[in-house]
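ARCHIVE CARD
Drawer: 12
Card no.: 0347
Subject: one protein chain, sequence and derived structure
Cross-reference: see card 0346
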Amino acid sequence: MVERTTRWVRLTAAGSALLPEIRSAVAAMTQLRQAAGLEARDVSGHLVLGAIGGEAAMPYTHAILARMRTARPHVTFEMRSLGFTEQADALISGQVDAAFLRPPLPPGLRTLQLTTDRRVVCVSADDPLAGQAPVSLAQLADHVRLDVPPGAPGVWWDFWTANPRPDGTPVRYGTVVTDPQAMLLAVARGQGIVFLPEAARPLYPRPDLAYLDVTDLSASSAALAWLPRNSTRPTITALRQAAHHVIRPGTTQS
C-alpha cells in the first residue's frame, strides 16, 4: 500500500487505486457520526415516569432528570407516585414508561441499579429500643410488621419485612397501610415497625420516629425499571443513557 524510506513515504500503485474508495469510506463514516449526533439531539417525545415512596426525591433521580433536560431538551416528562401494589403493574400495563423503584421486583422487567444503601428499622420514638443502636433482627422478633394491601409483589414485601426471620419463622403482620405517609403515621402510633432505606432518615425526619441501624440486615438497592419491549424506544434509550451518565460519569450508552 505504501513505500517508505527514512526520508519519505508514498503510496504504491495499488494504494493509489484504493485512495478514492478510502476517501469515500471516511466521508461516509463522518456523515454517519454527524447523523447519529443530530438524531441524538433531536430525540423527542413524552415520558411518564413512576416512583415509589421517596424515590422521586432522591439525588440520583434529580440528577438523571437534570441530565435529560440538558442532553435531550425535546423530551418532556412527568412523574407519578406509585402505590405499593401498583408499582410493577403500572409498568406492565403501560401507565408509566419507566419507574424508579426499590427491588426485588417481579421477573420480566429490565432494571439498571442506581445505588445501594443499608436498610434501617423505623420504630416509634416511644419504643424501648429507640435509644439503642444498633439492634439485631432477634431484638425485633417480637415487633409486629406493618402490612400492605394484597397485590403487592410477594418477593418484594418479604424482602422489605425480612420475612422469614433468621430462625425461619414467619413475621407477624399488623396494620395495613397503602402509602408511605400512612406507614410513617402508623409507626409513630406504635402500630408496627418497618424497614426502610437509610436514605429515609434525612428524607422523613420526625420527632415521633426513630431510625435504628440493624446489624444483620442486608443492603437494599434502587433501580430504574422498564419493559424489555420498550428498550429500543428512543425516549427510553435516552433515559437509560442519562442514568448511565449519572451513575458512571462519561458513559453514554447502556
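Annotation on reverse: The first strand starts at residue 2 and ends at 4. Confidence is low (pLDDT under 50) at residues 30-40, 250-254.
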